[in-house]
Structures are given as structure tokens and as C-alpha cells.
């Protein structure tokens, strides 16, 4: 139980880092109106996925060595981009609502970021379970092989 709690705490720390990266980018892109909120969310999530993968893999699940493209990177990205699809719907709805309510730049940015955080927050528990039980589950050690 102690190991699971430690893993949850480390995973929450990773989420804080990757969410901070994503929200900073999302906030800047939305506030400056560089791109539409939906596209800004795509860019922000894509950039935030890189530290999320590396920190989760190395720090939370203690994986070392070169990551496998098909066994680790592709599934992690698929999971992240499934979350992106859901958050993009929420971000688009929040931006539309903010525009209809005639909110200023700050109000619009806050609602868009809340939609992003709310969506990914709801998905966090599911993501942790999938990473722990499927993607980064302990690999069996075969006789005569070292664990990598």
C-alpha cells in the first residue's frame, strides 16, 4: 500500500509539472488570440505530453533504458490524445460560452483553462490506473534475463 501511495504522489507531482506547462502555453495562446482555443489546446497538450511521458516513465514507474515506440510511446500518446479530444470539446464549449457571455480576455482565458483542467482532472484517475496496470506494469523476469 505504501508503494502505491508513493506512486500516486509522484504521479500527482508529474501532473502538476505537465499541467503547468500546458496551461502556460494554453493561456498565452488564448490570451494573445494567437490561435483559436481548440487549436491552442492541441498545441498545449502536445507540448505537455513530452514531460508527462518522460517523468511518468522514469520517476513514477522507474523505467530505465530506451523507451519502446510501440509498447510505451504510442500507447501513452494515444491515451494523452484521447484526453485531448475530450478536453478540446470542453475548451471549445467554454470559449463559445465566454464569447456569448461577452467576457473579456481574462474571463475567456480563465474559462478555457478551467475547462482544460476539469477535463484532464476527471481523466487523471483513469490514466493512472491504465499506466500502472497496463502500460508500465511490471514485466516478468525470465530466467537468465536481467530486468531493464
How would you portray this structure in words?
By secondary structure, the protein is mainly alpha-helical. The longest helix is centred in the middle third of the chain and has 32 residues, at 69-100. The chain has four helices and no strands. Helix 1 runs antiparallel to helix 2 (37-60). The two termini are 24 Å apart. The protein has helices at 2-31, 37-60, 69-100, 105-135. It is elongated.
Q: Percentage of helical residues?
A: over 70%
Strand content: under 5%
- Structural class of the secondary elements? mainly alpha
Shape designation:
elongated
Computed CA radius of gyration, to the nearest angstrom: 17 Å
Order of helices and strands: HHHH
Overall mean pLDDT: 91
Distance between the termini: 24 Å
Strand count, sense and barrel status of the largest sheet are: none
Low-confidence stretches: none
Q: Number of DSSP strands?
A: 0
Number of helices: 4
List the helices and strands and how they pair.
Layout: H1 2-31, H2 37-60, H3 69-100, H4 105-135
Helix pairs in contact: 1-2, 1-4, 2-3, 3-4
Output the keywords.
148 residues; mainly alpha; 4 helices
What is the structure about, briefly put?
Helices cover 79% and strands 0% of the residues.
Amino acid at each position: 500500500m505504501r508503494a502505491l501511495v508513493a506512486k500516486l504522489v509522484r504521479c500527482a507531482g508529474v501532473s502538476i509539472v505537465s499541467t503547468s506547462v500546458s496551461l502556460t502555453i494554453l493561456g498565452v495562446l488564448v490570451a494573445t488570440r494567437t490561435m483559436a482555443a481548440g487549436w491552442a489546446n492541441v498545441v498545449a497538450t502536445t507540448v505537455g505530453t513530452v514531460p508527462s511521458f518522460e517523468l511518468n516513465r522514469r520517476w513514477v514507474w522507474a523505467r530505465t533504458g530506451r523507451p519502446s515506440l510501440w509498447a510505451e510511446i504510442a500507447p501513452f500518446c494515444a491515451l494523452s490524445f484521447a484526453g485531448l479530444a475530450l478536453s478540446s470539446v470542453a475548451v471549445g464549449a467554454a470559449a463559445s460560452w465566454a464569447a456569448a457571455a461577452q467576457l473579456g480576455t481574462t474571463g475567456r482565458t480563465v474559462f478555457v483553462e478551467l475547462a482544460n483542467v476539469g477535463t484532464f482532472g476527471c481523466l487523471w484517475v483513469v490514466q493512472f490506473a491504465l499506466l500502472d496496470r497496463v502500460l508500465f506494469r511490471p514485466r516478468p523476469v525470465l530466467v537468465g534475463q536481467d530486468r531493464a
